[in-house]
Amino acid sequence: MLSKEIAMMKPSVQKIRDLTLVRRAGSRLLVIGCDSSASIGNKPMDAVQTPPDIVGYYTARVAVMEVLSVGADILTVVDTLAVERHPTGNEIIRGIQRLLGEAGLTEAHINGSTEDNFESCQTGVGISVIGEADEERLKLKRSLAGDCVVMLGEPLIGSAVLEQEAKICSIRQLQSLAASPEVHEIHPVGSKGAGYEADLLAELNGCSFQAVPGITDKLNASGGPSTAVIFSAAEEQLEYIQSEIGGGLEIIGVLLPFGG
Questions:
Q1: What residues contact residue 14 under an 8 Å CB cut-off, 6+ apart?
Q2: Burial level of 86, CB count in 10 A (0-12/13-18/19+)?
């Protein structure tokens, strides 16, 4: 009997999308996301020469957006930096802190480590984000057949990310989407593009995704560091969502009953 009770107390672990969900006793569950970056920075052997603070900002952005997108509150952000603390590590951390500031978080939310035993000639960054959410409010598998699939922001990569910042879905906009009961689910757009995320959203909800005509290139474009998100909502709610969130919303398709 005791062994059965102990087994029931053990947390259950589930991987869905790019997230790990840890269910524990009670209604709150842990939501864990991560991202990494390699050979991007200002080290001699970096393939893409970029200021370290930019590397920290955008690497953290991807993992933070994944956790925020399901409606979780962020508990901590952990950086594992394969560079020395001074000066490169401090610059990367400065970029991470800038991102956290946009999310309403403080320096107390960040922890991590650097490599100070050996000299590094190439930049490597890992980011892990741990959040917490009420399961009944989790924005996962909440979409319905008939929902519109909408994009906020533009899929951008490389220099376009810095040159067209006004087109990027901001952290604040994402938080507003996540807090809106009219928004059913949100997927940040990664390197596989909005079409991949829309198909995945549909599959997770037992639906199929039908894209609007003429946007194949946009659906296939890499979202880089999650410069855009897609979300599902009823068509009649989109005008209200637009007024609350701001930014340019673009309907990219609709969810159909599977086989429909």
A1: 20, 21, 23
A2: exposed
CA distance 165 to 174: 15
Mean pLDDT of the residues in the chain: 93
Gyration radius (Cα) of the chain, Å: 19
What pTM was estimated for this model as a whole?
Answer: 0.91
Check: CB of residue 184 under 8 Å from CB of residue 143. yes
Beta-strand pair 12-16/19-23: antiparallel
Give the chain's length.
Answer: 260
Each residue's pLDDT tens digit, 109-157 = 999 999 999 999 999 999 999 999 998 889 999 999 999 999 999 999 8
DSSP 72: P
Query: Which residues, in sequence order, are CB contacts of 240 under 8 Å at separation 6+?
Result: 182
Structure tokens at 178: 């996540």
Which of residues 71 and 224 earns the better pLDDT score?
A: 71
233, amino acid identity: A
Distance CA 129, CA 229 (A): 18
